Each structure stands twice: as structure tokens, then as C-alpha cells.
Amino acid sequence: MKQSFYGGVHPHDRKELARHKEIVPLSAAPKEVVIAMAMHVGAPCKPIVSVGDQVKVGQKIGEIAGLGAPIHASVSGTVKAVEPRPYVGGGKCMSVVIENDFQDTWGSELTPHPDYTKLTTNEIVEIVKEAGITGMGGAGFPTHVKISSGLGKVDTLILNGAECEPYITADHRLMLEQGEKVIGGVRILMQAFGLKSAVIGVEANKEDAIEHLKALVGGKNDVTVESLRTRYPQGAEKQLIQRITGREVPPGGLPAHVGCAVFNVGTAAAVYDAVVEGKPLTHRIVTVTGDAIKEPKNLRVPLGTSFQQIIDEGKGFKETPDRVLTGGPMMGIAQYTLDVTCIKGTNAVLCLTKKEAAPVVEEETCLRCARCVNVCPMHLTPVYMHLYAEKGMWKEAEALNVMDCIECGSCNYICPARIHLVQSFRVTKGELRALAAKEKAAKEAAKA
Fold first, then answer.
1. φ/ψ bin of 232: left (φ > 0), alpha (ψ from -120 to 50), beta (otherwise)
2. What pLDDT, on a 0 to 100 scale, did the predictor assign at position 251?
3. Which residues lie below 8 Å from residue 230, measured CB to CB, with a gap of 6+?
4. What is the DSSP track for 428-443?
């Protein structure tokens, strides 16, 4: 039985800044791209090119080492450097720097399959893997792994078109302008899983996208487009599953445990490009927005484009920003330099003024008001998790299921004391992972 998820908040969506701006390419191609070797969940890719090599668009330049997805060149030209560079996730990351020759010489090794209905599941998985496709909503989980791990377990396929984060409109414009690829991509995924139907969930504040996708589906009943109540974090995987199917993913569980697989609409479009057109993932749609930007836009940018150039495409700053984020205001990460570059999960460059941004203040004392408990979509108790985190009581926080926190920021948003709850949970999770690694190493040493 379908049901609404627990908790959530209603921040002003501010999508009017870029909602009606069509997707456009960069007015000037980047002189160089800095392509990070970490664009996915799992170990970073190993660079397979060297300084001085000539590369083509779509050529593989990073090979996976374990869990991950290969990385391809987004421009043609000469490899200028292979070295650590500033990274959107913080610090530096090994990157391949390509000097653009502005020829856009194509070099993909993928074969187009216009009639994808003749492909087997294994063939689809292999194409998706070689195309380097990851979750385009920001999570970055390798898509071929998600498909493979769900085979024989999944009976419900869901496409996530909620785009619940304020300001971001990249998926909205994708559904409006390239809806054919979204529908085609979901049908390819249906074939891979051996399913006859799928659901696309879109928040109600994108009514034009809902109507457009319904028109594209036409008289067929294989794909259902469902309007969802506008509430954050409607687009979170587990909340979307509960809303559409009524099933609840258990603590520590995955969607496949309740027979579901969820993919972003951008991921579905990338699957279509890879299978039907033979194109690996080299570009993505990025919203540059915020009140600090002169002209908010939705851009199609090559991976490895600097945030500075993306901001310049929005005509620069109309006032000095208080902070620049990758992603939205709820889950986005503040950047320390504009030299960082776009990766596969970069859906927005958000430039906030001091008026827009929540002021950075000294934490006040917790009021025990329980508002954080009331809005937590994961049924957690942020107030107690934070108290344990403050005292370094990591195991006690783990017993309260802190590892299930999706870091949506609803508790931060609602807290009247301005306590940095999500940040403390991130630290706690890091400490618990470090403890688990130490315990594993100790056990292996004891066996040895």
C-alpha cells in the first residue's frame, strides 16, 4: 500500500531562478579539463594515460580498481599532467589534466545498438559498465553494479525525478527537453531486469515535466508517471520507495532487500546514450544558480570543467557570495576554491549570498525540543546521537543507528539552536568506519 514517508521539511524551493532556462552548451569550450579519478563510490580509478599522450573524446583514461566505473576523456587533446588537483569532495585527488585541441575528435570504443531489444542482460550490463555510468543524482554508485546485484531480486523499478533539493533544476530541464532519452533509458533498464513495468516519480512542482513524460509514454502502460507531494527529502531513495510502493527498507538494508531498484532520471538518460548511441559518460547537466549569480542557467558541461568557468557562464557574481556549494543547500558541500572541477555527480554549482545562507553561529545549548526527531525521515533520534558524538561515544551512537542517517539536513534545517547535527554524524560515521577497519585488521593479524 502506498504511503507518505515520515518526517521531512518544506524549505522554499527557489527553483524559479533557473526553472525556465533551457539547457545550453558552454559558450566557449574549456581550454583544459581536470578530470578527477574519483567520481564514484569505491576506490579511485587508476590513470591509464601519461603526460604527452593524445586522447579523444570518449577514450578511456581511468580504469577501475575494484568497485567503481571507468572514466573517459570529455575533450580531445594532449594530456598535460597526471597529478593531484583540488577536489569537490575536499582536499586533492589524482586527476588527468587534458589541454583541449578544440577538435572534439571522437574516440569511443562503444558500439551503438539502436535496437536494444535484441541485447541480453549481460550485454546491457557490460555496455553500462564500459560507459562509466554512475548515479547521476549525486550518490555516484556504479550503475552496472546496481543492476547486477539486483538481478533476480527486483520486481519494482523506480526512476527518481523528484529533484527535491531547493534551487536545482537540472533533472527538471532534462525531463522536459530530453524526455525521450529518459523513457528509452527506463525501458532498457526494464529489459535488463526482465520487468514489464516501471514507475517514474516526479514532485508536483514539476507539473510540465509530468505531463510531458506522460505524453511521451502515450498509450503504452509499461511506464507510469506518478506525481509526488512536494516535500524534502522526497527524492531520497528509501523515502521514494516507501511513497511509491509502501515498502520500508530495513535498517542497514538496501532497496533490493524489498524488491526495488531506484535510478535517477539522469542515469536513465545516460544509459540510453550508452546503449543506443554508443556514447560513454563524458558530459552532464549542471545548474548554476543562487542569488549571487547574475544569470542562473542550466548548462551541459564536459566533465572536468572548473567551477570558475561554470560561474563565468552565469555572467559571474553580482555580489560577493557568502559560500559556493556543489549541490543544493541541504546536502551540498561548501568549496574552498573555484579551481575544483565538475564530476559525474555534480548537479549544481550554488552561489549563496549572506542573506540566503544560514548564518554561521556559535552552537547554542540543545533545547530538547525534539523537532529534529519529528522531521527525521529515517525515524532516528538526532538529539541523542549528537550527545553521544560530542562525548566520543561512537558505539553508543552506532546502537542508535547513526549509520542509517542519510545526511539530508532536515534536522539542521529545523534546529532552533543551530546545532551542527549532520556534521557531527559525518564525523561519527567516519570514526565508526575507522574502528571497524581496525577490528578487521586485528582479526586478520590474529589469524595470521
1. beta
2. 85
3. 10, 13, 164, 203, 204, 205
4. HHHHHHHHHHHHHHHH
Closest CA to 106 of 168, 54, 59: 59
* Chain centroid to CA 47: 23
pLDDT of 137 above 90: no
Q: Residue 139's pLDDT is what? A: 79
d(CA 253, CA 249): 6
The amino acid at 383:
V
Name the CATH topology of 116-277: Rossmann fold (3.40.50)
Number of CB atoms found within 10 A of residue 249's CB: 19
- pTM to 2 decimals? 0.93
Instruction: Please report how the helices 207-217 and 179-193 are oriented relative to each other, as an axis angle in degrees rounded to 10.
Output: 60
Contact 11, 330 (CB under 8 A): yes
DSSP summary character for residue 190: H
Q: Output the pLDDT for position 72.
A: 98
Helix and strand numbers (H, E) in the chain are: 13, 17
Rounded to whole angstroms, the Cα distance separating 65 from 46 reads 7
Sequence-distant (≥ 6) Cβ neighbours of residue 120 within 8 angstroms: none
pLDDT of amino acid 356: 86
Residue 367 reports pLDDT greater than 90: no
Where are the domains positioned within the chain? 116-277, 371-447
- The DSSP H or E segment spanning 326 is strand 323-326
CA angle, 275 as apex, 68 and 136 as ends, to 5°? 45
**Does residue 207 come out as left (phi exceeding 0), alpha (psi in the -120 to 50 range) or beta?**
alpha
For residue range 261-277, list pLDDT tens digits in order: 999 999 999 999 999 99
- Bond before 30 cis per omega within 30 degrees: no
User: What single-letter DSSP state applies at residue 259?
Assistant: T
Report, in this order, helix, strand and coil percent for the chain, each rounded to 5. 35, 20, 45
